[in-house]
């Protein structure tokens, strides 16, 4: 929260914000759209970005509605506290020299400010879920806690808290499904009813995930395999070979109620998505994009760029996960099913996204569409930390130094605006006519380098300026947030101290 900008930065975010507002204010999904030209593809009329008309002529956002549902309480909080309940001055803490997608007035500014903080809470929940998942798959509390901290502070998860994009919520929901499955497997022997309930939660999470972003559908086969692997491995014969289909089905019998319930709940989620698309756009398989925004393409550019390009590499923008590559072999030994889930989910998203012309995710930071896979991939780092006590002093220093550098890098990226940097690239003669290609492949155009030319875009600094002008209230609020953070850090530190080897 202390690095949040307090504003909606992207046109995608504004469309989702308008959907959130419509849900809370009118119980509807219809929106007005953005009045001026923003992200329309060439040839599309100004003001048409992010929405499509339904058969009845109403406008609907083409992004998933899961984030709007999750953000509805934040919007309600903003509405309940809007000026004059909070001082007008608080709405002026946001930098005023940035591009905006709404008409500037106190109530609208405050609503955007409050709703824009949603992903701060979502990412905190994801870090907690990551710790729980790692503990349930058999890693130590110490390794799980350190990995949760590394995910929150040493990967793109931190900069993405600044956005109102759906990727942080996708990460949370997919990880929640994995946690529920891991719990079901651990509880199956002694508490079969509780295990069934966990499988139902996993199915519900998977069903909700497609409402956050339709791309999350590609995770379904791997989540299903993750749930079924213990039964398949348990059905091997004495010679280690797989048994007959009947034997496999018999092995599934104790979990039949949980698995069927999970499948039904996931199917219900998908069915509601298809129904919603049919009602809004007249076609169950139409998301509202109508082919305007992307198409299938040769995947090679996206494949290598999302791994190696200075502006898009996953391993540059999630350095803590990169360290974890050195622990993947250990992770496969300690938790093979969970590790294969993480690798399979990452590889599938990487392949599918790379085959689309919009693989880069617009004016976003790093590999936007791979962000939801980062928490699961952190299992490699957890295994590395688990083995550190048995490694040399040199290796231990190298790992802790790497994690410190990771936090410094992503903290730096979390204080500037990628949208502001992309506008700067647009006006730079070196990238004239090739802004996107330059942002992907030119080292000097990477935000890691380019952010040095930008001013901080942080709401808390605005609160400091307001306090100097005689309006300390918002800064007091940040002080309370910081105090809570310090108390929580103390509790985590105590837990790590008690779990030391």
From TrEMBL:
Instruction: Indicate whether Transmembrane helix appears among the record's keywords.
Output: yes
Q: Which UniProt keywords apply?
A: Membrane, Transmembrane, Transmembrane helix
Q: Is DNA repair one of the keywords UniProt gives this record?
A: no
| Residues spanning the membrane | 110-131, 168-187, 199-229, 259-279, 339-357, 369-386, 398-419, 474-497
Highest taxon above the source species: Bacteria
Name of the protein this chain belongs to: Glycosyltransferase RgtA/B/C/D-like domain-containing protein
* Protein species of origin: Nannocystis bainbridge
Q: What is the lineage of its organism?
A: Bacteria, Pseudomonadati, Myxococcota, Polyangia, Nannocystales
